[in-house]
Structure prediction request, 893 residues.
Amino acid sequence: MDGALGPPEKMAERGDDLTPMLSQYYDLCAEYDDSLVLFQVGDFYETFCEAAEITARLLEITRTQREDSTGTYPMAGIPIDNAESYIETLLDAGYRVAVADQVQDPEEATGVVERAVTRIVTPGTLTEDELLDTEDNNFVACLTEDPDRYGLALLDVSTGDFYVTSARRESAIADEVSRFAPAEAIVEPGTDADPFDADCMVSPYDAEAFDAEAAAERVEAYFGSPDTQLAEDVETRACGALLAYAEYTRGGEDGGSADAADRLDYLNHLTRYEPREYMLLDRVALGSLELFERRTVHGDEDVTLLGVLDETSCALGSRKLKDWLRRPLLEPDRIESRLDAVEEWTRRVQAREAAREQLRDVYDIERLIARISRGRANARDLRSLKATLDVVPELKATMDGFESERLVELREALDELADVRDRIDRAIREDPAREITEGDVIKPSYDDELAELRETEREGKAWIDDLEASERERTGIDSLKVGHNSVHGYYIEVTNPNLDSVPDDYNRRQTLKNAERFYTPELKEREDEILRAENRADDLEHELFREVRREVAGESERVQAVADALAQLDVLAALAEVAATRDYARPEIVDESDGDGSGLRIEGGRHPVVERTQRSFVPNDTDLDSERHFAVVTGPNMSGKSTYMRQVALITVLAQTGSFVPAASARIEPVDRIFTRVGASDDIAGGRSTFMVEMTELAAILQSATEDSLVLLDEVGRGTSTTDGLAIARAVTEYVHDEVGALTLFATHHHELTETADDLPGAFNLHFAAERTDEEVVFDHEVREGAATASYGVQVAREAGVPDAVVERSKDLLADADDGPEESAASGPPDAAERESLPERGSPPERESPPEVVADGSAVGGDLATRLREVDVATMTPLEAMNELAELKREVE
Ligand code: ADP
Prediction:
């Protein structure tokens, strides 16, 4: 991956001369040559040579030198205590990190301390909570290819979510990649990953793991016979390689490889799906509809569709909601089942409140069980699992008498796991220590031997507590003290003046300035006994803890089933909360096979995100079906066209996710895919590249849209000249209308297109109007049938903040142009040109006083008139308009 990785050259030159420690480092670097090796030396993780240069630079830590008999080596280290944040920086910079811990007690080592790589941290295989976003999955993807098929497997190592699919076209896989947005991808060596468009670290992995037979065996070991599920070789190979990678990056239990299971038993569930099973939302659509991320921030609020919907109470629900939104459903039955559940939650107001409160006590048990299963969980994690299981019976009680099929099923799926819960409760202390090797983890009552050892320890300590008093009495030394320090252990301290009174059985342990410290044979014996008991008890606790942890790990599948039920209940209740508080309506889902071609019928629809940022939002209707499937939407800038189009798409996404929708009513026939070509107006930089992007997106739409798709087109042909743009827009309209038949909303400034719509049977016009007063344009944001009649570039320029002087001048110029002698030479159909860029005839106020023509008279005015006629105000962005005006003004002056 990086030329600097692998064993350092400088050490290679030394060969056998290296000190044992550096030779150990060298070997680990050679073995993990795709990773940066962090090498534990005491309280630090050290890196050497080239790796030290990298870490020093990226982590802003000091680079020092290590000198030994064989030479001087650059060295840079990070403290183990806050290694995670440093590791995160290394990941962000594109590195994998192999953590090599000391796996032997230095005191027990005869030579160099034994070290082993205990985990490999990569962006896609994180399991440490500190490094993960609780509200999002963290996927690692694996891409495979055959001559005629492409495979994709996706695994969230931190939760066990595992998906696989395949397709004949690369672009279909690329769409799935953007749907899941993996943090990392692996490919077979030699594979070109570019076409998959993965926006993450992509690296080749061990070719052997991709071998068809090896992969099939691995898949079988995890999920049973592979051929029942995975029909395609590319799928088996992708899954097999990914499992191998997950095992490779796992490392050993608690930082040692001692007793970690070979398999990761929490990976027990594989979901195979067809891209066509879900509504397709490609990268462009995900972005422009702002489902998860905001592209532009309007106003102060930075909200997305996910942000509006996420009223979930726990991390499990939050992740599930995102998962549902990422994959809206197509089958009416599945959608209805969710809607029934949401509806029931909306009706059961009190139960909903209670449940949402209870769900707040639910820990992220999906990630907990993964850590438990990987042997990386501590006692607190087990306690958190227990606390979550305590919620289960409460929640079941809350849902007593629920009726919708889905909720009844989910309630039944809420296994209390009483055995697991009780085992944890019996074994693990209420408030256990964070470390699992140093005691204070297991309740003494859990194990007889442990209880005995702790009792011995307690008795011994009690004896010592009493010792001071009894020795004072025996010796008659009132100032005698019994104490403890970590080097010398227990001692009896006598000050110098009293040394004469010391009995014979006192042995000298330590001499201080004013006192001597002693021990007696009996004290020594007691002390040894306490120590022995303590050490043995700590070890025993560690052992017992791991036993309990393994046992709980063995119940992964059941815990995951509970986690899934809790997550779904949380999402359904959250959707109900949104529906109830935001006045959403249950959509009617129409089955395509019913054949009434009902398409999309929305009454009083609102944009779920914009309505939150707007003081008042104007609801609008939508009616698209197979008869009237192509709407040309016209209206001036800022009148609400793109808000309207996106709102239609978002309502569709919501409905197919199983959510209520922001509308008075909605009848929706599921769409197979939403295509968007919107937002060129945001690309103020404009120019060629914008046009290229636009055409690429357009090509994808024209190639893959079907009559069941929803297509949003905004200003197609904008990035090129007016004539080209119009020609393209017209051709696209005809093609989509005649050949594709998709439900389409096409916003345009080309008023000529409204005539095209009149000519095509399935097309019709919609428009947004504007009320024009003398000084400003007022939009009512209301969609109406028919074509728009005017757009008001100049006023929009004023609203955008163009200085008054410029606006005034442009009004004059417009008026002038209107009167100008070359009017008949205007390009384009005269009525269109007039509608688009000129004030209506009549008595505009600026006519009353003649335009102020500059001193040198008509020559300049005439030039300007020509220039102005060439300007297509309607298709300009405010900034372009401003620049143009500034330019004209400069010329005039
Ligand atoms: P266009 O695409 O026609 O240029 P937009 O859809 O971007 O216009 O809308 C411009 C602004 O108008 C939005 O940012 C929003 O603030 C407001 N707006 C749009 N539609 C509505 C509506 N239905 N009700 C209230 N405000 C709206």
